[in-house]
């Protein structure tokens, strides 16, 4: 009972591992104290139990979502497994492990993913797709695996926005604002304006501008032709346009529009028991996530926990904290 309570304090109250022996902590609990070494041992055993529980529910078809995060001086890679089970999509964190900073090539990424899957008794033979940023390294990683890459749509939009921002950045100068007023009443703010403005004003401004963005989003490529090379389904930045097109059709309940070429692309997702003239595909095809925002949210949440005061933590301890705090399976163990 004591170890469970102390683990929960470290994970969910963002307390250091030595908090279990602190006088203040002990004054608020009647449970028997345990030392930090014992606490780490129990956390390691709990991690192994959660890994076994995850390995037991992984099906024969799955995908992997991953992204990188620089924490202090270590480059961590968050790896999620994406699969369909019990009529719903599951995204389970497999690991947040450091990547060798001396070699961050695509070959290193391939070896990293292979090693993570091996921990759970899986092999790349069952891997059907990757979800990640559209950078050259991740694209080459998908190519080396021989599977399609679902490039993060948020990353593509961010690249397009930065492209437009380089043009609009000059409008912050007083001499250029006259031309801008001819097209819109909105004016860009200087970089130091938001630093001193209230949070309420920032939220109001974002709400005001985002409402307009949602209206014109579908016509963005028409209004801003420069974004076409990032946002179009067949843009050069898209790694697997032949895969994303049938996925969009299946997700939109337009399976009858699939061409023979697109049906061939979806063959790895066909159900073995399908007897229809048009082979049925796994439900995961219609539920594949279009973005890797789940990784970004994980990093944002973990930054609140991994403060500079915890910079001396070993990478393995950081991984245990993030892994157990993130996975709902941890609540059952």
From TrEMBL:
<dbReference type="InterPro" id="IPR012337">
    <property type="entry name" value="RNaseH-like_sf"/>
</dbReference>
<protein>
    <recommendedName>
        <fullName>HAT C-terminal dimerisation domain-containing protein</fullName>
    </recommendedName>
</protein>
